[in-house]
Amino acid sequence: MREYKQQLTVLVVTISLMCSCVSKKPAAKYVSAPDYNQRIAVEEPYYKKRANGFGITVGVALPVGGAVAGYFASPFKYQDGDQRKTSRVGGAVAGALVGAGIAYFAGRIAGYGKEVEVKEVTEWIRKANPEYRYLKGANNNFTIIHPSIEQNYTVKNITDAKDFKLMFPNSLYTNNVVLSGINNLSRTELPVLIETFPFEQSTEQAKIKYIISSLTFDDAISAARRYTVNYDVESYLLNLIKNVDNGIKFLEFYPNTSYRKIAVLNAFKESNQTKQDWIKLQTAFGNDIYLTKSDFANVSDNVKQNYYYGMYELSNPGTVDKFDEFNAQYSWLSYSYKKNDMLSFYWDIVNRSYSSGMIVIEQFKEILANPVYENLTITDVDIKSIMEEKFKEEATKNIFIRSKHIIGSQNKEWETWKQSQYTAGMVSEYGAIQFIVYGEVENTSKFALPIEIAAGGSLTQTTRLTGQGNFMNALVNFAGMLGAPTTQVELIAAETGRCFYPAIPSRGKIFYAILLDFGEGVTKTGINVFDLLKASSELSITHDTVGLRFSSIVPTQEQLEKQNTWLQFAHQGLPSSELVDFIRNEAVRQEIWKIRHEEYKERMRETMQRAASDIDPDAVSIPSNYKIVDWLGNEVSNEWIPELGDDPYKRIRWEEGGKVIQGIIRKNRHHDNFYYQWDGSSGYRYKTEKDAIDALYVKGKYDKLRKIGKD
Question: What band does 4 get if pLDDT is binned at 50, 70 and 90?
Fold first, then answer.
């Protein structure tokens, strides 16, 4: 029992010693490198428990002490065969193991290797590196800084400025930091710098920079209202004035300014201001708006021109005499474009004064003899230049294209071929690919104006696939699911034609016509497959445009004759080339089609009548009023039908005694026999064509089928 108490005492004492031998070493999951201001970011800091020097000594001493104690204690007894022996070495070993076990057990209780949460940041910083100081942040994410950076601190962004204020609130180097911020910060960051360090000597410079780095006049005057500085802000703002709005705001901010006339002059820097703007400026500045020659020293031509425009608008001379007075008042105002500007104003006054364009032109030319304008040395060339400029404006505002039409060559044979049955395999038209664009132009101006009209368009090929009768049309529509029966393909980019008219009468109309010529080629082509399917291809104009503009070009006689020809085409149509039957190698004519149609119709009637008579001598002859029908019995065009012996399909219909006799006889392509179909019923096969025709006729006549020669 005594031994147990002694051992327990040793263990408790040892644990107490080991707890005093454990230290917390600072660590973190992330520590950044120092930046340009010696700031270090620390994320997720913690302590890790480790044995200190004393703890290591105790850990070593316990096994050694245990070995010594074991050696001098009672001898270690052990059994060696039949003999029982003792050993002090064994006691020493056992003592050492006991000492090491006590040391390990005590170390684990003391917390060797465990991570400990940081509760006090400053303590962690002191243990990690006592040279650094806490700057900002929370326990798990904070920033530290080395205090030695104070005299060399740099401001590259507004965060740098705030960090310096936070770390060194009473620093002797604050003014240098503000200067660093002035040099490096953007204009939008300067107010924060000023707010952060409001009482430094260099803060005044920050305010000045904020004002003079403004991008607009409004920004600058807003900054001047925000900060009062020892700087000539008035002169700075004065130079920023470029329009009426700026000038008025400047006067509101400095109502007693001595720079009123300069402010007025600068308000004319911007062009395209209105009469209402000049009225506002006159209201704000009063008579100071009327400047003299001495006010225009070293002033650009642009400002002089704008001032001349503004004074003209305010003076508003309604007559030539008033305009003469206005120009006499400002004869001292000279700039590069004054002659043109003056002539333009003079034209406007004369134009408003007369309703006749001819009188306007005559009155305008009288300026050449007006002594008021002798110093401007006005010439006929100047007069012509201004008139051309004004006529362009008139043409843009007062000439309109009222209509537009397009026609190509019209071929009657082609139109008939598209609508009729015609078993020619292929027909084509080859010739000039031309189109006429025509319409009406109206001039609402008081002046007779010369213009140019341009027309353009792209050449497009349109292909159509059609079927004869309901059945074939159904097939065509079904095929359209795979590829559209009608397709368009643009072949040639836009072609442009032009025509010139020396003068469109005042308040009058003219007709125009322009030829678009795409050269030679196939304009139309068509294919007919046994009157079942037809494919046709035609050329047309798409993306067509018509535009006009003023033109001083005088057309040649050749051009005028060409334009007259185009007008005739617009009235009578373009000449077309012949439609050629490529199978028969001859030109197609509508009258030939009609003759052939009658011939084939008569031959079919005779053949059917002869066949019926051969089969049934008592039968009445087939009348001549039969009609050609399609697969479903619908009547089709009878312009042309195939010869009886050449076509594998016979579609026949006639009326007799109130009865309608109709049917289809088809030649079998694989066997030399025939069969007859009646209104969709099952077919009957016959050995000869006569048998089939006879069966059709007999059924129609007697409403029964005589099965002669049936297989």
Answer: very low
